[in-house]
């Protein structure tokens, strides 16, 4: 494995990345966002924010429903449903001024994939910024009921024989996720690979928008999928399949979605960005209270948001998990965290893991300078400014941009200071 913490981004992307960095530098010079004044009014009163019908969009939805954007001087913020993560990307490329969106509830790796032009038309970089994390934990890996007798849970190897038999019969094994290189893609790949199943060779990975997962499983279009809630719980409630594991069992306290914004919008509107952040952070605190889970489920279930029965949202929000295979767990700590355990703070070390995994699967070059890329996109400084103005307790503000070493269910350890060692320890990967 080539050393990744090199002095520059890989040669093949140096021109694009340099141009992106130059653009950001130019915008920051014109609109310096470092100097926040407590009394500074937002430069604009609104922004267009996209969301996908997933429980981890709750901070944006609650901030809208509870008037928190208005409270912090942003009464014209619109929270707009997106059909898929691909649509989210396309609308971010357009930008709010061109009938797209300015920011979004987004899969944490997506801003990096857009920032480097990996997933944009003609590979044109769209400078992006991550302002906050929206949640930890509570995605699910679910399996069609045809595989119930395998007993598969955390150990994906229990599927190997069944998969091989199906392939021998000339049938395709389909593993669905929501966006190539996104969180769900990385979770299902990690799980399969840990069980000795190569996600590039032994199965076909397909892209399915979150709200369409259950319907596709129902008609037999996939064997396994990884998605956020409420779709795993709905699958179980409809008796179509079962949850093998939640992603918190793969990596306890893992980061998931982010609040991503176009970098040009953030730099032109630093006070507005901070005001939106404060609204979202206040919503995260509200969402985190167990006393609010029922009301939250009712809000999210509304037609304009998820259009699902609140019960499909509520159970796993409270840590009650009916896996659908005879396993029922009550009061677990695998529920979605919105604020506790520094859930809102965008640790740069976490972004480093997502980039390392995308190197593992060939989305980024092996010699990508992870630290340099993270420093361009991750704006934890804006989070800290918003936290200060919001009066967040010092105990709730991390003292470091790194959460340190992370340990996964299979014993693998990711040291953000040495991603190469982590990648070298993995036996199944696309990167060489």
Main structural class: alpha/beta
- What is the CATH class designation of the largest domain? Alpha Beta
Strand residues, percent: 5-15%
Q: Which architecture of the largest domain per CATH?
A: 3-Layer(aba) Sandwich
The CATH superfamily of the largest domain appears as Periplasmic binding protein-like II
InterPro entries: NrtA/CpmA_ABC-bd_dom (IPR044527), TAT_signal (IPR006311)
Family: Belongs to the CmpA/NrtA family.
Pfam families: NMT1_2 (PF13379)
Signal peptide: 1-37
Structural commentary:
This protein has 432 residues and is α/β, with parallel strands linked by helices. It folds into two domains: 11-136 and 255-288 and 338-424, 3-Layer(aba) Sandwich (D-Maltodextrin-Binding Protein, domain 2); 139-253, 3-Layer(aba) Sandwich (D-Maltodextrin-Binding Protein, domain 2), CATH 3.40.190.10. Helix content is 38%, strand content 13%. The chain contains 18 helices and 14 strands. It has helices at residues 11-30, 58-65, 68-71, 85-94, 110-115, 160-168, 183-194, 213-218, 231-237, 247-250, 263-268, 270-288, 293-301, 311-317, 348-360, 370-377, 380-390, 419-424, and strands at residues 48-51, 78-81, 103-107, 128-133, 139-144, 174-177, 204-207, 224-228, 241-246, 257-262, 321-322, 328-329, 406-407, 413-414. The chain has a five-stranded mixed β-sheet, sandwiched between helices. Strand 6 (174-177), helix 7 and strand 7 (204-207) form a beta-alpha-beta unit. Helix 9 crosses helix 14 (311-317) and helix 13 runs antiparallel to helix 14 (311-317). The longest helix has 20 residues, at 11-30. The radius of gyration is 21 Å and the shape is globular. The termini are close together.
